[in-house]
Each structure stands twice: as C-alpha cells, then as structure tokens.
Model the fold of this input.
Amino acid sequence: MSQQKESNRQVILTSRPHGAPTADNFRLDTQPVPTPDEGQVLLRTVYLSLDPYMRGRMSDAPSYVPPFAVNEVLGGGTVAIVETSRHPDYAAGDWVVSQSGWQDYALSDGSDLFKLQGPVLEHPSWALSLLGMTGFTAYMGLLDIGNPQPGETVVVAAATGAVGSVVGQIAKLKGCRVVGIAGGEEKCRYAQETLGFDHCVDHRRDDLAEQLKQHCPDGIDVYFENVGGKVFNAVLPLMNTKGRIPLCGLIADYNSTNLPQGEDHLPLFQGAILRKRLRVQGFIITQDYGDRFDEFFRQMSQWIAEDRLVLREHIVDGLEQAPEAFIGMLEGKNFGKLVIRVADDQPGEQS
Ligand SMILES: NC(=O)c1ccc[n+]([C@@H]2O[C@H](COP(=O)([O-])OP(=O)(O)OC[C@H]3O[C@@H](n4cnc5c(N)ncnc54)[C@H](OP(=O)(O)O)[C@@H]3O)[C@@H](O)[C@H]2O)c1
Done:
C-alpha cells in the first residue's frame, strides 16, 4: 500500500539566527506533494539527519557552500523511499540516501542519490551515521590526517556524538589508548563502558585540564577536534612533539556572535605548533574525500559485520520536532547521532 500523504510538510528557515537559534527562526509549512516529470523520482523522507554544520549554513557568513536561503525549506541529508519513479534506474520501494531536506517529499533527477542495497537495509538510518557522512568524517579525519599508531594516545572531543564515537572506536581498533571528552557523567560512563574508551573526561568539570593530564600520562599524540573553546585550551599543553590535530569542527563557537573576550591564545597556539612541530589540518569531508567513499564503506561494513562497532542513535519522531531537536543538539542535549524519524519506514506501493 502506498503511504503517500495529501500534503508535503516543510520546515522553513524564516530568519537567520543571531547567536543560538530559537523556535522563531523556523516555521512549519504545508505544500502540495510535487509530481515527478519524466526522468525524476518522488521521494518520501523517512529519516532526516540533523548535523551541526547546518548551523553554519543558517548564517550568511562566507563559507565553502552557499547559505540556506531565508523563506526556503532547510536542506539536509536524508534516507528516503522512492514513492513514484519515472527514472530508469529507480523503482518504487527503493531506499536511497538523498538530500531531500527538512520535508516529507522531494523530487530528484537521481544525480544526488545513493541506492541502499545489502545489509545496510537492515538499519537504513545507519546510512546517515556509521555508514554515512559522520562515519566517513571520523574515518578519514582520524586515519588520513591523524595517522594513529598502535600505543599512541588519541583524545577525541564530543566523544559520544556521531563523529566522536566512531573516531574513538576506530582508534581502539588501531591499538591506541583512547581518552574521550564529553558533557556529563552519563555520557562519560557510556564512552568507557559501551564504546570501550580507556577513559572519558567531563568537560563541564572545573578541573578539566587536570583530569585530562591525569588520564593522558604520556601526553597526546592525536587530538581529534570537534569542539574548540575551553576544551582545546585544556588539550594543547598536553600535545606531544609531532602530534596531529585533525580539525573537524568547532561546535563550541557555532553560536558565537563575537570573538571571545579575554586573553588572546593565538600566540600560544602558534608557538606550540612551531616548537612541537604539530600538524594541524582542517578538512571538509564532502569537499576533500569524495573519491574515498567506497574504501570507507567497504571497511566500515566489514567492521559492522564483525560486530566491532557500536552505534547509539538519538531518534526523535516527527518532522515538526526538528527545530527543537536541532537547537538542543547545539546545547549537547542529543546523546548519539541525532536523526528525525519523519515517516513510517515501510516501503510504498510498487509502480
Ligand atoms: N569537517 C567536516 O567535514 C565535518 C563533518 C561532520 C561533522 N563535523 C563536525 O564534527 C563535530 C561533531 O559533529 P557530530 O555530527 O558528531 O555532532 P554530535 O557530536 O553528535 O553532537 C554535537 C555534540 O557536541 C557537543 N557540544 C555542543 N556544544 C558544545 C560545547 N559548547 N562545548 C563542548 N561540546 C559541545 C555536545 O556533546 P557533549 O554533551 O558531549 O558536550 C553535542 O552533543 C561538529 O563540530 C561538526 O561540525 C565536521
């Protein structure tokens, strides 16, 4: 049975946030379900990925991609079911990774689709995390830039999140000592007891720097940066000579409207890079590593099949909940990969 609804709900960006986003920046709208032309498919969104990068695209500061447009539906990675196909490569009922954004239905000409086949169909939402963008980010950032060696100490921030949890687990598979940094006791306990990290330090504690020092007695060889701010300040003095810092994200600053007040840490940072010959490299997964997705997908699929990776998803039901869930993610309220379940996950009618 087709589950096609009569209308297409969309979350619209009504204004650009100044500082932390609020509910006023979003509006739930309703439009007719679009009809595919020849060569197009109609997609029904099942899962919508909510990711920190979306905060950057809600602003119009210069970046590597254009910002989201005001009064338009928000963009984003999705897992969708082909509801109706007028495209030779897709049939109704196919599962795909798409860029349908924050809405129930979208059209595609197929150029932005990745068909899901094989074991991933047991957990289609994993195509947004372990087997998708965030897993890919963890894999390439850690292995290509971090280059972790057995016995080395790897520290990862936002340690229980979509990227950080995978970074730490891969580092363990590579024989490293792994110390996570996360917000709160529950997340830290999970990092140690479930993800298998050697330790995890709570960044909300006043003695973060001392705790980190105590649990990294041999210093830090690889710091996977997801956060910035005071977490980075605690890490920097512990970096070893020839240490590597894959600079993946700076979520602590995404809602900032001004440069931080107080002491200027830049000379300290530059001095450390020079004296310790640190390698600090920023990367944008979609821009820098597109040609290595197959390698990543094969290796991750194998580790998953061997039961060597754990995934925690934070699934929120209902497209209308997306703004609140997104706002919460920037405050650390998610525990695991944040995904909105937009619709039932049963396939539609075959055409
Ligand atoms: N470069 C790339 O291509 C690329 C691709 C994907 C993601 N990223 C970046 O990777 C980072 C992690 O993304 P994700 O998708 O895995 O998100 P996530 O970790 O699943 O969720 C965000 C987490 O960040 C932490 N956080 C938020 N504000 C913080 C603050 N002020 N100080 C410290 N921690 C804070 C919170 O965890 P706690 O409660 O533990 O603090 C929150 O749960 C982000 O910076 C993102 O922009 C970059």
Summary: The mean pLDDT is 95. The longest strand covers residues 41-49. The two ends are 11 Å apart (CA to CA). The pocket of NAP is lined by residues 51-53, 134, 137, 158, 160-164, 182-183, 187, 203, 226-227, 229, 231, 248-252, 283-285, 329-330, 332, 334, 337 (CB under 6 Å).
